[in-house]
């Protein structure tokens, strides 16, 4: 029993985990349901990833037409204490984030065992990324926090997430993920994460009330 519990607790190892931020761009700010709380949830995950040593991978859908990733996110990435954690920010036309670039040696996305998938849109890019990751990469676990994904039409979200859940994707919340990554209150970054959770309490509540309410 002890070994089984230990194995479960270690299944979300930060060093084997990557945070994916999909197409959270300026042009979508007024089009996506719950865009502001979604962005706040992603920013919380980015802050946590930087102290936990989690790599991040960011894509932009046709940025010439749709603009760059929103400043709230890019400013955090630009201030990263460890640039090696920033695997890159890539433009794409493909809906899936699983593009040819991920196989390059300096990115090596397929080697990560745990994918945390955030961004837009749930029924298009998020869905296709999750399915491709299951098929093409070595990912053992794909996590989608409900407070960090959305679509233009909110009714699309529960359908997409239910479909992905049936394929083995784990549907969760950003706060639950943070504590899964810690695993133990004795973790050296526990105080930082607990403080971050307290500071983001209002944003988290708003995100859940807005984005989880559609499920």
TrEMBL record:
Coiled-coil stretches noted in the UniProt entry, renumbered to this chain? none
Record Gene3D superfamilies: Isochorismatase-like (3.40.50.850)
| Residues covered by the Isochorismatase-like domain | 17-175
Q: Where on the tree of life does the source sit, at the highest rank? A: Eukaryota
- InterPro entries to which the protein is assigned, alphabetical: Isochorismatase-like_dom, Isochorismatase-like_sf, Isochorismatase_domain
Family the entry assigns: Belongs to the isochorismatase family.
| Protein's name in the database | Isochorismatase-like domain-containing protein
């Amino acid at each position: 029993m002890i070994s089984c519990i230990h194995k479960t607790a270690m299944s979300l190892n930060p060093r084997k985990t990557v945070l994916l931020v999909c197409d959270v761009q300026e042009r979508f700010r007024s089009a996506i349901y719950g865009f502001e709380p979604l962005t706040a949830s992603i920013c919380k995950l980015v802050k946590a990833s930087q102290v936990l040593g989690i790599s991040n991978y960011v894509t932009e859908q046709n940025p010439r037409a749709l603009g760059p990733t929103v400043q709230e996110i890019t400013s955090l990435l630009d201030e990263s204490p460890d640039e090696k954690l920033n695997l890159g920010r890539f433009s794409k036309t493909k809906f899936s984030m699983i593009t040819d670039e991920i196989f390059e040696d300096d990115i090596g996305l397929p080697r990560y065992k745990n994918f945390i998938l955030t961004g837009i849109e749930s029924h298009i890019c998020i869905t296709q990324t999750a399915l491709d990751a299951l098929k093409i990469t070595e990912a053992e676990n794909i996590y989608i926090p409900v407070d960090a994904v959305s679509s233009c039409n909110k009714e699309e979200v529960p359908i997409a997430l239910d479909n992905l859940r049936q394929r083995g994707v784990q549907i969760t919340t950003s706060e639950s993920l943070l504590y899964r990554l810690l695993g133990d209150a004795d973790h050296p970054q526990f105080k930082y994460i607990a403080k971050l959770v307290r500071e983001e309490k209002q944003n988290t509540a708003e995100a859940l009330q807005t984005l989880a309410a559609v499920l």
